[in-house]
Write a structure and sequence with these properties.
single chain; mainly beta; 12% helix; 4-stranded antiparallel beta sheet; 12-stranded mixed beta sheet
Length: 257
């Protein structure tokens, strides 16, 4: 294989049999179960990296069922996102969320999510299911239960145009790729958006959330002080590609537009 061929064909590993196809990635009937809760604000400040700023004292704990996605297949994901604010070089202030932790059960979106965007994904066993009148989410890391969430099923229908505006906000994460000597070669703040969103339904209801301590699955590092809300919605969407908005390794790093 010639050097020019490598340059022309390489986009992911392994070179001759990549773990995932080229983007874009489209999701159909993607089901979200989100519990928003209050936590310890000092812990939020310690975990969220500058130049992001923490907004308030809440965390969104998410369970997501993806029964049909191009390239990534059928899988389930769970994790925590934190409301933040980002100020661009032009002084524009953006409200969004920082993706703090993600756990899922499928190899392709783990490798693709980490390598392309920098999603903080780990292999685990999340589950989202309907049990009679209750929506139930669980997370096991190996054999150990790390999270349990419940919600009354479709108690109140939400206004779709109003709810859809919440899905227009960006999300941020840190993409870290090590050098061959173990030092960081890439360390960037990445911003992305969900695109082509078709919201099919949204509901709220009573919710509850329990998080349990685990050395390698540290969702309990942001403890539950009070449940604020529980929402459930279904949508088709495209996962937008990211853009680098801050380079932590550049000597004179400043946020980009």
């Amino acid at each position: 294989m010639k050097i020019a061929d490598v340059r022309a064909s390489a986009f992911a590993m392994p070179l001759h049999n990549p773990a995932y196809p080229r983007p874009p990635y489209k999701f159909y009937n993607r089901e979200f179960f989100v519990i928003t809760y209050r936590t310890d604000p000092e812990r939020l400040q310690a975990l969220v990296p500058e130049p992001l700023e923490v907004v308030g004292d809440t965390v969104a704990y998410e369970f997501i069922r993806m029964p049909d996605s191009t390239g990534f297949g059928d899988y389930t994901e769970t994790g925590q996102v934190i409301p933040v604010r980002f100020t661009t070089l032009q002084g524009e202030m953006q409200e969004g969320s920082y993706v703090h932790a993600m756990y899922l059960d499928d190899n392709s979106p783990i490798t693709g999510g980490r390598e392309i965007w920098g999603f903080p994904k780990k292999l685990a066993t999340p589950n989202l299911r309907h049990e009679q009148e209750t929506l139930v989410g669980t997370l096991h890391y190996g054999s150990v239960l790390c999270a349990t969430a419940t919600m009354g099923y479709k108690h109140r229908e939400l206004d779709l145009p109003s709810f859809a505006r919440n899905l227009d906000k960006p999300a941020f994460m840190i993409k870290i790729i090590p050098h061959v000597d173990g030092s960081p070669r890439i360390c960037e703040l990445v911003r992305y958006y969900m695109e082509d969103v078709t919201l099919k339904g949204a509901w709220d209801g009573p919710g509850a959330l329990q998080l349990f301590e685990h050395a390698m699955c540290d969702v309990a590092r942001l403890p539950v002080r009070e449940v604020v809300s529980a929402t459930h919605y279904i949508a088709d969407l495209t996962l937008g590609l990211g853009e680098v908005v801050y380079d932590y390794l550049a000597p004179d790093s400043t946020p980009t537009p």
